[in-house]
Specification:
The structure is a single chain. By secondary structure, this protein is α/β, with parallel strands linked by helices. Helix content is 40%, strand content 18%. The protein has helices at 3-6, 19-28, 49-56, 59-63, 65-68, 73-76, 88-91, 108-118, 138-147; strands at residues 13-14, 33-37, 43-48, 101-103, 122-126, 132-137. The strands form 2 sheets. A 3-stranded mixed β-sheet has the order 1-2-3. The chain has a 3-stranded mixed β-sheet with strand order 4-5-6. Helix 2 packs antiparallel against helix 3 (49-56).
Length: 151
């Protein structure tokens, strides 16, 4: 089985999209992360969900757990809405890392190896020109691997 066989279509975001939109796309789509694409639909970055959280949680709260305990529950539940009009591009660290991508003909072992080494629960599947054709989510990969009989 190849990557293209288990790839699915998922919503993407661009560097110009507001971070709030990125959070909504990930949350409403129940995605384990996001694929950031350019205008030509080429992946620029693949962000695991924990990296998306890093975009919305102010650095001070990431670095000081005691500070987070000073925020009351009502405000703690809405902290991410205070990011204003910051874009995904504004929040990404530079230099940007290479996106986690495979070609459609990659084997499931190649996909699993890449996911494991990149610590990413999703991989972008691209065509020969680098344009996004789909994504492989960790749960889908593991479900497919579970169907393979040992021996």
């Amino acid at each position: 089985m190849q990557a293209r066989d288990i790839a699915v279509q998922i919503p993407t975001v661009t560097l110009a999209d507001p971070v709030a939109r990125a959070v909504r796309v990930m949350g409403l789509g129940r995605l384990p992360g996001l694929i950031v694409v350019d205008r030509s639909r080429r992946p620029v970055q693949v962000l695991p969900g924990t990296q998306v959280l890093r975009l919305v949680v102010p650095r001070a709260y990431q670095e000081d757990a005691a500070l987070t305990r000073t925020v009351d529950e009502a405000h703690a539940d809405r902290f991410w809405q205070e990011i204003g009009e910051m874009t995904v591009g504004d929040c990404l660290a530079s230099p940007k890392t290479r996106p986690v991508t495979v070609r459609g003909g990659a084997t499931l072992l190649e996909v699993a190896g890449l996911m494991a080494s990149a610590r990413s629960p999703l991989v972008a599947v691209v065509d020969a020109t680098g344009v996004l054709t789909g994504a492989i989510l960790l749960d889908r990969l593991v479900a497919q691997l579970a169907l393979v009989e040992p021996g």
